[in-house]
Amino acid sequence: PAGPAEPAAAYLTAGQPARGQEVFTAMCSACHGRNEFTGPIFALTWRADPVGNLFEHISTAMPQDRPGSLSPAQYADVLAYILQLNGLTAGDRELPADAELLGRMRW
């Protein structure tokens, strides 16, 4: 019997974090600074878990006044921006807006 699938490394394209930064600036920056999404506290809170855990959190709880009001693609773009802030370099595939796929991706 096959075991569980190995976690895949997260990926993103060069343009995706730029779109995510636009959404972040418009929708998130009133309450959040980008420095909240890097550094040791952020790493301890999120980086041991699959990327999908953060996607699930932001797509169901943010923005605080209208949780879940952005499109899945917008949430994925914001997540790509956060991944880029944490040193992930761009490749040729967009980070998917799919919670199940993201749940199998590591930082």
Question: Can you characterise this structure?
Answer:
By secondary structure, the protein is mainly alpha-helical. Helix content is 49%, strand content 4%. It contains five helices and two strands. The protein has helices spanning 15-28, 39-47, 51-61, 72-85, 99-102; strands at residues 8-9, 105-106. A two-stranded parallel sheet has the order 1-2. Helix 1 (15-28) crosses helix 4 (72-85). The chain is globular, with a radius of gyration of 13 Å. It starts with 7 loop residues before the first strand and ends with a strand. The model has no long low-confidence stretch (mean pLDDT 94).
Describe the secondary-structure layout.
Blueprint: E1 8-9, H1 15-28, H2 39-47, H3 51-61, H4 72-85, H5 99-102, E2 105-106
Parallel strand pairs: 1-2
Helix pairs in contact: 1-4, 3-4
